[in-house]
Design brief:
Number of strands: 7
Protein name: Thioesterase domain-containing protein
Order of helices and strands: EEEHEHEHHHEHEHH
Oligomer: single chain
Largest sheet: 7 strands, mixed
CATH superfamily: Alpha/Beta hydrolase fold, catalytic domain
InterPro entries: AB_hydrolase_fold, TEII, Thioesterase
Strand content: 15-25%
Structural class: alpha/beta
Shape: globular
Radius of gyration: 17 Å
Family: Belongs to the thioesterase family.
Distance between the termini: 39 Å
Number of helices: 8
C-alpha cells in the first residue's frame, strides 16, 4: 500500500489550522476538487484522496476492498502535521470517510471537527440497485452514461475506457457491496448534502443523523446525483458556510 501517494495536497499551507480532506465518488480522481483550491478560506488546506488506477496513479492496480482503502488513508493522515480535520465525501467517498472516522474513534484519536456526507445514503442502507460492476463491457459503459458522472467524450473513447475500466469496476464493486449497521454515536458534527433530483430519498439520508452526536441539517441542491459537478458555485458557498460554522474554529 502506497500511503504517500493516496493523499494529495496540491497547495500545502503550513500555517493553516484546518485541513479539508476531500473523498471523491466511485471512479473519481483528485482533479474533481482542483477548482476548489483557490476558493477556500486562507486558513483551510485542501487534501484530496487519490486512489490508484486514476490521475497520477493511473498505472497502479485499484484496491479491491474497503478495508485496504481505509487503512491506507488512515495511515497517510497520521503522517501529516496535525491540523483540525473536516471530512467531505461524495457518494462512495462519504462511506470511505465514515469508515475512517470510525477507525479514528475506536483508536481514541482526534476526530474530525465536522463531517459532510454528500450524495450518499446512510451506511446502514443497503443499495436498492442491482449490481453493475460485473456487467459486460458494453453494458457497463452504457450504465455509466446513465449516471452522468463520466464525460461523454471519455465514454466514447474505447482505448481510454479500456484503461479506466479496472478502477471503475473495482470502485463499483466496493460501493455496491458496502453495508455497515454499526450503531455507534460519534461525538462530532454532521451535515448532509443532497441533490433534489437524486434517487436517494430522505428516509435513506436521515439514518446518518443517528451516527453522529451533533446534527445540522440536509442541504439540498438542484440537480441529480452529480450535483457536485452541476452546481459548483452553490456547493462551494454551502461548503464554506459549513466550515465557518464550526464552533471550535475561528476562521473569521
Amino acid at each position: 500500500m502506497n500511503i504517500h501517494s493516496i493523499l494529495y495536497i496540491p497547495q500545502p499551507k503550513a500555517n493553516a489550522p484546518i485541513r479539508l480532506v476531500c473523498f471523491p465518488y466511485a471512479g473519481g480522481g483528485a482533479s474533481l476538487f482542483f477548482p476548489w483550491l483557490n476558493l477556500m478560506p486562507e486558513k483551510v488546506e485542501v487534501a484530496i484522496i487519490q486512489l490508484p488506477g486514476r490521475g497520477t496513479r493511473f498505472s497502479e492496480s485499484p484496491y479491491e476492498s474497503m478495508d485496504d482503502i481505509v487503512e491506507c488513508i488512515y495511515r497517510a493522515l497520521k503522517e501529516l502535521p496535525s491540523k483540525e480535520l473536516i471530512f467531505f465525501g461524495h457518494s462512495m467517498g462519504a462511506r470511505i470517510a465514515y469508515e475512517i472516522t470510525l477507525r479514528i474513534y475506536h483508536r481514541k484519536e482526534q476526530l474530525p471537527v465536522h463531517f459532510i456526507a454528500s450524495g450518499s445514503p446512510a451506511p446502514c442502507v443497503r443499495s436498492k440497485k442491482p449490481p453493475c460492476h460485473n456487467l459486460p463491457t458494453e453494458e457497463f459503459i452504457k450504465h455509466l452514461g446513465t449516471l452522468n458522472g463520466t464525460p461523454k467524450e471519455v465514454l466514447s473513447d474505447p482505448q481510454l475506457m479500456e484503461l479506466l475500466l479496472p478502477a471503475l469496476r473495482a470502485d463499483f464493486k466496493i460501493a455496491e457491496g458496502y453495508l455497515n449497521t454499526t450503531r455507534i454515536t460519534i461525538p462530532t458534527t454532521i451535515t448532509l448534502f443532497s441533490g433534489r433530483l437524486d434517487d436517494i430519498n430522505t428516509e435513506e439520508l436521515e439514518p446518518w443523523f443517528l451516527l453522529f452526536q451533533y446534527n445540522r441539517d440536509i442541504v439540498w441542491f438542484e440537480g441529480g446525483h452529480f450535483f457536485i459537478n452541476e452546481n459548483h458555485s452553490e456547493l462551494i458557498s454551502a461548503l464554506k458556510k459549513e466550515i465557518m460554522n464550526c464552533n471550535s474554529l475561528d476562521l473569521i
